[in-house]
Design goal:
Layout (H helix, E strand, L loop, with lengths): L2 H8 L1 H20 L2 H32 L7 H33 L5 H30 L22
């Protein structure tokens, strides 16, 4: 397994981890369950680690695909630029989650307020990392933006052809 393969594999972790973590944290706040909040914080911390790995392997992935015919350098640049925002937001989320985990385990009076702040950060982070993934998917997955793929049958023939 090379860095490009690792990049493609790991990029899904921050996307789904931040989304599921936000849902778990919202449930923990609603049910007033500290173990559920702790589970959410762990998901956020793992997601932050995952985004770090994805970001660090991104350059190798870029070098692999930048010379493939049909790959637009503009799309790679957009993905790379947006990845910086996703990286920063998820690192902030991971660090905040470490603090939230500590406060929850200590049964601090700030636990609930911090959990709401972390939930807000997770919503922003989820949006940023999902957008980054969308832009990354457009680099090689031309079917995302190709409106003709929905009108084609098997074998690439139009459904209207007889």
């Amino acid at each position: 397994m090379n860095q490009t393969h690792l990049h493609l594999l790991i990029t899904h972790l921050p996307i789904f981890g931040s989304i599921f973590g936000g849902l778990v944290l919202a449930h923990g706040l609603w049910t007033k369950s500290n173990p559920t909040k702790i589970a959410a914080y762990n998901l956020f911390i793992i997601s932050a680690i995952g985004v770090g790995v994805a970001y660090l392997t991104g350059e190798a992935a870029e070098e692999t695909v930048e010379n493939i015919q049909g790959v637009a350098k503009k799309m790679i640049d957009q993905h790379e630029d947006f990845a910086g925002f996703a990286l920063v937001s998820l690192i902030i989320l991971g660090v905040a989650s470490i603090g939230g985990l500590f406060l929850t385990l200590r049964r601090s009076v700030l636990t609930k307020k911090v959990a709401f702040v972390i939930l807000f950060i997770s919503i922003i982070s989820s949006c940023l990392v999902a957008r980054t993934g969308y832009l990354g998917g457009q680099i090689r997955h031309i079917e995302i933006n190709n409106p003709t793929t929905s009108t084609q049958g098997q074998g690439g023939e139009n459904e209207d052809d007889d």
